[in-house]
C-alpha cells in the first residue's frame, strides 16, 4: 500500500511537471517523465495480479485527473489517460517477455532491452493518444505520433534507467575519477556548460557541444554518475528550450520537442553506453583476476610448474613465484632452452636437443604426454621431471603458443630407488642367511660372512676377527679382498684399536678417514687399502663373539643408515652361523672321537684312510697301517677292575699320541684294539714306530702289533685286513711283538676297457657304490660305462636322461665344485629325482673338458648314503681321472674333433683291452 501510494504521489508530480512543460501556443509537452514512472510503478506489481489491477486503476484515474486539472479538454484527458496506461502496460509486458527482469536491466544488453521495450510501448501508446488528439484538434497524426514516440520513449528510457541504476540495492562500480567530490565537481561543470550552451546561444547551432561532455562523463565516471548526468542534461535542455533559449527556438513546437528528445537520447545513450561498457570491462577484469588468482592458487596446490610460450617461442611468466625449479628468463630462443634450463635425458647421460623438449614439440603442434627428463634446478641439483605439453589455440583455431606442465618427481624417484634398494638389500641378506643356514663347515661359514658383508655394503675389503684360543687377542679367521690376511691379530690389551673398541663396547665404530686415525693400525690400511672403515660387532645372546672390519677404497664421510642396518642383520645371522658351525664341528669331533680315550673312532679312521690312500696313489708314496691289540686286557680288567682298565687305555693312547705325527691317524678300532695310519711312511719306518709304541705301554703291560704297507690299487679294507692278520700272527707267536704283513703279489689286470679300469679305481679309492662315465649330448646325459650300482637306480650303458635331471649339471655350469656330501641338505640337489627317491645320498664328480674348452662328459661317483665330508684330495682324484679321460679322447679324436671323431673316441674308450 505504501509503495503504491508513493508511486501515485510521484506519478502525479511527474504528470504536473509534464503538463507544465507545454510550449507556448501548443498543447505538446516538452517532456513526459510520467511515462517512466508509470513503467516503474507497474513493474513493481507486475507479477501480483491483485495489486496490478489496483495500480492500473489508480494510474488511469491519476492520469485523467492530472490532465483535466491542468486544463486539458475532457476528450484529451480521456485519450491521454488511456494512452499512458496502455503505453506503460505494453512496455512492462515487453520487458517481462525479454530475458532478465527490470531489476536486471544493467549492462549494454539491459540497456538495449529497455530501449526496445520503451519504443514498442510508446508506439502502441501513440496509436491511442495522438490519434484521438488529431480527431479532436485537427492536429496532424503522423507529426503528433512521432512527437509522442520520441518524447515518451526518451522519458521512459531515462526515468527507468535512473530508477534501476540509482535506487537498486546492489551498487555499481566506483567512479574512475578520484572520490565522490571529484565526480560531483565534474557534474556541476557539465551542467554549467550545458546551461551556457542552451541559455546564451539562441539560434546558434551549438547543440552538438553537449555530446563531448557526455562522452567525457561516460569515460570517466560510474554508471550512476552517468545516469545523473543524463538526467541533468535532460533537465537543462528541456528548461532552456521551454524558456525560449538554445539552438532550437526558431523551430516549431513539435520540431523543438523532437529535437530536444533526439539530443537528450543521443547524449544519454552515449554516456550510459560508455559508462556501462567500461563497467563491464572492469567487471570482467575483476572476474578474470579472481579466476587467475583461483587458477594460481590451484596450480600452487598441484606442486607443478607452468611454462608458457607464444607463437614466436618467447617464454612468459604465468606466475613468477611458481617457477620453483628455474625462473623464466625472457628473450630466450627455443634453441637455447636445453642449456638455459640444464635439460638432460632421464639418466643424465647427455643434454637434450631442442627437438626433444616437450614444450618445443608442442610449439610445433604436437601434444606430448608425460615425458621424463632431468632439469638442473636453481639449487644446483638435478631434478627428475614428468613434463606434459600441449599447443595453445585461439577461438579461430590458430595456434598462439604452447604450455608445458612440469611435475617434480625427484622425491618420488628417490623413494622408489630407496624402496628398490631396500628390497634388493633384504633379498641379498636373505640369500646370505639361507646360505649360512646350510653351511656346516666353520671355515666356509666364515668365508660366506665376509663375502656377504662385502657385497651388501659395497666394500672393497672385509675381515672377520675372533678370539683366539689364548683369549688375549682377536685373530683374523676369514677375509674378502685382503692379501695375506692369515696371521693378522689385534691384542686386546694394547694400542687403541677400532676392532677392540667394537668388541668391548658391542657398538659399531666408524672411521671416515683411516690415514691418520689412531684406532686403525697401519698394517690394516696397507693390507686392505681402506680409506674409510667401520668395525661392527657380531653379537650372540648379548655377548660379542667377533668383529667385522669393513673397509672402502673410496672415502665415505657419513656411514649410510642402510649399511649399518645391513651389517646389523648380517652380524646377527653371522653370530648364529658361527655358533652353529662350531657346534656342528664339536659334534663332528665327538662323532669322530672315542669318548674314553680321545683318539679317533672307527668312522674317522675310515674317512682318513680313504683320503690318505687316494693321496698315496697320486703321489706314488708309501702308506702303512698298524694294528695294535693289548695283551691279556680281559685279565687286567678282571683282576684290577674296569676303572683301572679304562685308565690303562687312556694312558696308553696319551703316550702313543705324543709319539705319532700330526699327519698320522691314531684310532680306537674296537675294545682294546687300535689302528694307526702312517702316510708317507715306509714299512721299515712303520716297524720302528710300532716297536717304540710297544715299549710305551703303562703298568708293565704289553701289546701285539701288526704292520702292513699298502699295495697299488689295494682298498682300505684289504690293507687293514692284512695288518690285522699280521697282528694275530704276533699274538700266535707269543704276544708282545711286532709282525710285518707280507707284500701281496701283483695281480693281473683283468680283461676290460679303458673306462672300466678307470671307474673301478675311482670307486674303490673314493669309497663309492657306483662310478660312471657319461657323455653330454644336446641337453642329455648318455651313460657310456658304469662300475658298481646303487639300490633304487636302474642305470645301464647307453641309457640317456635329461641333463637337468642329473647332478652333473651343477658340475658343468659351475654351481658346485663337484662335491655334494649330503644331497638331501643341498638346495640344488634336493629337486633331483634321485634325491627325492632317496636313492643317492652323496655325489662327487668332475667335467671332462677338451683343450678347446668344450665339456664333452663327466666322470662321477655316487653313494647310497650321505658321508660326513668329501675331501679336497678326493675331489682332486676325480678331477685327475676326468683329465685323463679328456686326454684319452683328445688323443683318439685329434686336436679339433668333429662330432663323428668324438663318437669314435668314446667307442675306443669302451673297447675291450687285455692285461699284459
Largest sheet: 6 strands, antiparallel
**Poorly predicted runs:** 101-105, 169-178, 747-752, 912-916
Shape assignment: rod-shaped
Q: Please tally the helical runs, counting DSSP H or I stretches of 4 or more residues.
A: 28
Structural class: alpha+beta
What average pLDDT do the residues reach?
A: 81
Q: How far from one another are the termini?
A: 148 Å
Q: Total number of β-strand segments?
A: 25
* Radius of gyration of CA atoms, rounded to a whole number: 59 Å
Query: Helix proportion of residues, in percent?
Result: 40-55%
Give the strand order of the largest sheet, numbering strands 1, 2, ... along the chain. Answer: 2-1-6-5-4-3
Strand percent estimate: 15-25%
Could you please describe the fold and organization of this structure?
51% of the residues lie in helices and 17% in strands. It is α+β, with helices and mostly antiparallel strands. The protein starts with a helix and ends with a strand. A hairpin with a 5-residue loop joins β7 and β8. α3 runs antiparallel to α4, α5 packs antiparallel against α7 and α10 runs antiparallel to α11. A six-stranded antiparallel beta sheet has the order 2-1-6-5-4-3. A six-stranded antiparallel beta sheet has the order 9-8-7-12-11-10. A six-stranded antiparallel beta sheet has the order 21-20-19-24-23-22. The chain is rod-shaped. The C terminus is likely disordered. The protein contains 28 helices and 25 strands.
